[in-house]
Every structure is written in C-alpha cells, then in structure tokens.
Specification:
By secondary structure, this protein is an alpha+beta fold. The chain is built from twelve helices and twelve strands. It has helices spanning about 1-10, 20-25, 35-40, 50-60, 65-80, 100, 105-115, 185-205, 225-235, 260-265, 285-290, 355-375; strands spanning about 85-90, 120-125, 130, 140-150, 160-170, 175-185, 215, 240-255, 275, 295-310, 310-320, 335-345. Helix 2 (about 20-25) packs antiparallel against helix 4 and helix 9 runs antiparallel to helix 12 (about 355-375).
C-alpha cells in the first residue's frame, strides 16, 4: 500500500528545472530572444542588451517561478506543435505514375542507419506512401513519432509529433517533382529531410532525375536584398480567400556591409537582430521606405488575415520566416511558413472544420509562395 502511494506521489511530483537543465530548454530555437526578454523583464531584471547570451545566465541564476515556467513551456509548445511547411522542387523526366518510381521505404531502417545513438524518439507504426485522391501523380506519407519532451511535466514526458511528405508532379512549362515537407518537432524535421535525400538518390539511380540536378529550396541568398523584401511583401496583401488585416510583427537585421540611411542610424545603432510589434507596421519606415531595402535584412513577418471560407469566417495568423538565419551563415537559412492561430467566428464554430480551413490556407499560400519565388529569385 505504501509502495502504491509512493508511486502515485512520484507520478505527479514535479521539480522546476534549473541550472544546466533550464539552459537546455531556454536555448532552443522555438524560444525567441523577445520571448526571453519579456520573461526577464517580468522578473524585474533590466539589461543593456537582450540577446540569449544576455538573458539566459540571469534566468539560470534566479530560477523561474511555476507561472513563468508555464509561460515558457506554452511558448515553446506552441511553436513545436504547429505544423511547419517547407517545399522543394526538381526537374522530372520519369514516369507520370509516381508510385511506380518509388523505392521500397523502410522508415524504421532509415532512422536506425541515420542515428548512431538513440535519437530520443521512436517511430510509431509502419508508414508507407499512398495515393492522394486516387491520383497516380501525387502521393503522401504520414508518420508519427513518440518523443521525450523536456518541456512537459514529469508525468507527461512522452509526446507524439506528426510529420509528412507529399510528392506531386507539377507542370509549369516544364515537369517538376514538387515536394512538401511538413513537420512539428526537430525529430520529425530530421526524418522528412532524410527521406527526401533517400528519394533523390533513388530517382537519380533510375534516371527519373538527372544526376546533376538537385532539389531547389527557397534559401535566403537566392534573392537580392530588395527582392527578398518584395517576396515578403507579397504576403502582406489579400491572397485568395485570405483578406489582409495587419502585420503582427517583423524581425529585421541590419546588413553589416551596408550603410544605414541617416534617419535610421541612431535607431539601429549596435543592433544585430530586432523584433518589432505594434500597430500600422506596414507604414514603418523599415518597410515603407525603399532606401532601407538595400541595408536591412527582413528575416521574418507574422501576418494576420480575415478568412472567408466555405467552412466559415474568422481570423488567422501566419508566420513567414527564415528561421535558421545567422549573420555568418545566412546562405544556410531556408524559408518556411507556419499557420498559427485560427479563430473561427462565433456563428460558424458549431460546424466549421478547422482542418479544411488549414488545408485551404496551405494550398493558397504554397501556390503564392512558389509563384513569387520563381519571379523574384536571382
């Protein structure tokens, strides 16, 4: 009986992370510098700068309260669990029946070959490619993993994360194999990237893709700076059934090799990365003044839209970003977007299916993104 009581107690016992364990949580990319800045200030700690190098040490020393830890956990959880989308394309000269061109995929074996040590997650089930809507030119593989989470309470450390890869033939003057990678956690991202590499090698072996070709991704350095601005600006407008409402926030970084316009020098002095929130950001000089587009890197934008869908009406937010951006390795930063909050108006909540709305949002944004990338890239 005593043993049972101890087990129940341990099951629900929870210790606030501190020291090195807390540091491993705070350094994760899902938590932005502005997230940690707000936590630090809420504790009454004010610093000259608020980079992660500045905010993490005092947070490690001062310890988070249960409420503060819950806020950090929710911020990270929201970023991790929302689906992120990245797409690639490659010229195709194989059969228009993709199923006949696919290799035999053993995802369990693929994972065991990739990781020398325990990756911290386990693949669930035996995923396989299946046709989408009975089409032979579009296939999809969905999968789930069970992952140990350091942001969960001690009695809920195991969590499932989803990922998928969709392969589709598209004709835009030339036949391309278009791949959509969807992931949530770092583990699911690694799996879709590994699977894509496996498929690329196979398609080259069977002659469906030329050996000199490679997947084209939307990378930071694929644009001249002014065109990258224009690329982001294309999302700050009405897009199909999405009606632009406002810019929620933007993230910018001055180009250290360019001269900042005089009226912005003091404002941007000693700034490496700046996140701006507020009203009427579209009119902010960093976006509205042409002269800033050669001197400032636009890294991320969060946009709010009103949607008018067959399932109902409401508000949604989308983030467009180069999340891997680092000044010294900016050529490695790849574009992605993710659909954040979807709030259906009260009159439609009883029957509106958010999954259908989200699917439609993805389709219209993906088409817009591909079109403007092809027209604005170098």
């Amino acid at each position: 009986m005593e043993q049972l009581e101890n087990n129940e107690k341990n099951k629900f016992e929870f210790h606030l992370p501190h020291g090195e364990i807390l540091r491993t949580i705070l350094v994760k990319t899902e938590l932005s510098e502005s997230n940690l800045k707000s936590v630090v200030k809420s504790k009454g700690i004010f610093l000259p700068k608020y980079s992660k190098e500045d905010t993490i040490p005092p947070l490690m020393r001062s310890l988070l309260s249960p409420k503060e830890y819950e806020e950090v956990r929710d911020l990270q959880k929201f970023k991790v669990e929302k689906l992120k989308y990245r797409t690639t394309q490659i010229p195709w000269q194989g059969s228009k029946n993709i199923l006949t061109s696919l290799p035999k995929i053993d995802l369990h074996k693929l994972i065991s070959e990739k990781y020398k040590y325990d990756p911290g997650f386990e693949l669930i089930g035996v995923p396989a490619f299946v046709p989408v809507d009975d089409r032979v030119d579009k296939v999809k593989l969905n999968f789930k993993i069970e992952e140990s989470s350091d942001i969960a309470t001690i009695h809920n450390r195991k969590k499932e994360y989803k990922g998928s890869i969709v392969i589709e033939l598209k004709e835009d003057g030339n036949l391309h194999l278009h791949t959509t990678k969807t992931y949530t956690s770092k583990g699911t991202q690694d799996i879709v990237n590994t699977l894509e590499s496996k498929l690329e090698n196979h398609f080259k072996e069977i002659g469906a893709v030329k050996k000199q070709e490679t997947y084209e991704r939307i990378m930071f350095d694929h644009f001249w700076n002014s065109n990258r601005f224009l690329f982001f600006m294309k999302f700050m407008d009405d897009i199909g059934f999405l009606k632009f409402k406002k810019i929620v926030d933007i993230n910018v970084s001055p180009d250290p090799d360019k001269e900042i316009p005089d009226d912005g020098k003091e404002f941007l002095k000693d700034i490496e990365n700046l996140n701006l929130k507020g009203k009427s950001l579209r009119k902010h000089i960093l976006l509205s003044k042409q002269k800033y587009r050669e001197a400032i890197w636009l890294i991320a934008v969060t946009v709010q839209y009103k949607f008018l869908h067959s399932e109902g009406e409401g508000i949604c937010e989308l983030e467009y970003a180069f999340p891997d951006f680092r000044i010294v390795e900016r050529e490695l930063a790849e574009f992605q977007f993710f659909i954040g909050k979807i709030t259906v108006d009260r009159n439609y909540r009883a029957y509106a299916k958010k999954t259908k709305i989200e699917k439609s949002i993805f389709e219209v944004i993906d088409e817009t993104k591909t079109h403007h990338y092809n027209s604005l890239k170098k």
